[in-house]
Amino acid sequence: MYTPLDPATDGAEMSFDGRMSYGDYLSIDAILTAQNPATDAHDEMLFIIQHQTSELWMRLALHELNAARICIANDRPREAFKMLARISRIFEQLNSAWDVLRTMTPSEYTRFRDGLGQSSGFQSHQYRLIEFAVGNRNTAMLRPHAHRADYTALLTAELARPSLYDESLRFLHRAGLPVPENVITRDLTRPWETSSSVQAVWETIYRAPETYWEAYELAEKLVDFEDYFRRWRFNHVITVERIIGFKRGTGGTSGVQYLRKMLETELFPELWHLRTTL
What is the mean pLDDT of the chain? Predict the structure, then answer.
């Protein structure tokens, strides 16, 4: 005769009156009551949870990005490598999430799209923080967040910090590699401009990886991240085209056309261009 297992006989805690439980620690009640559909459409719950979980993963990505930059700035690149590898895995998760959202058809999305108003992923301040943190800086992108002083303050503070790429180049400079002084002292709020001198430094590293192993590994960790990041952008384009075609986005952008333009943006251009010249 089958006897159901009583977890208490295996030492499991079974009473949590006045004690911290799993749900308490993770604030599960707050998380599971944060979905507030604007319509009665069945598929709106998928849309909300997809974007909420993406924001949670982006929060973790920012946590890791900030720590990685601190490590690189303090000449502890090996610690940063683990964090950068984790960020790549985070974006792998974000890429997989598009597969779930793509199960929604145009007909299903149409049933609740009007309920979104002007809200759009374009307005995600965390996504913008990630872009600013890794080096894709555009002060025009502060404007969608002007209604939130707290978001604007976070983004403005980020623009005053060296980006992940800036910190990586400063690390190379401190290691004795000939990164130009004007790169080290550049205006951090400005978008990165491709530099043949910086590419030459990376080429030196790639031609002698055994000599510059830490710099070489840092370069590949940056490429890994951008690889996953660009796939995430590509999957975003495909998902939007599959669901709304070439309609304008809810946030007012041209939709797919706008997203396709973003595919052309390179975060660490010299690390991609050197592959042609090696």
Answer: 93
111 membership: H or E segment, kind and range: helix 106-113
Q: Give the burial string for 225-256 (b: 16+ CB within 10 Å, else e).
A: bbebbbebbbbbbebbebbbeeeebbbeeebb
Query: pLDDT tens digit string along 18-63?
Result: 889 999 999 999 999 999 999 999 999 999 999 999 999 999 999 9
Q: Are the C-beta atoms of 143 and 125 separated by less than 8 Å?
A: no
- What is the C-alpha to C-alpha distance for residues 76 and 171, in angstroms, rounded to an integer? 10
pLDDT digits (tens, 9 = 90+) for 194-240: 999 999 999 999 999 999 999 999 999 999 999 999 999 988 888 88
Distance CA 178, CA 197 (A): 8
For residue 136, give Cα distances in angstroms to 14, 139, 140, 158: 50, 10, 12, 11
What does each C-alpha distance from 174 to 75, 77, 215, 216 come to in angstroms? 9, 12, 11, 15
DSSP label of 249: P
Residue spans of the domains in the chain: they are 40-119+163-277
Q: Tell me the whole-structure pTM to 2 decimals.
A: 0.92
Q: Could you please state the CATH topology (level 3) that the domain comprising 40-119+163-277 is classified under.
A: Methane Monooxygenase Hydroxylase; Chain G, domain 1 (1.20.58)
Q: What is the mean pLDDT of residues 237-255?
A: 78
Candidates 104, 8, 100; CA nearest to 53 is 100
Q: Please answer whether residues 278 and 267 qualify as being in contact, where contact means their C-beta atoms are separated by less than 8 angstroms.
A: no
Contacts of 272 (CB under 8 A, 6+ apart): 223, 226, 266
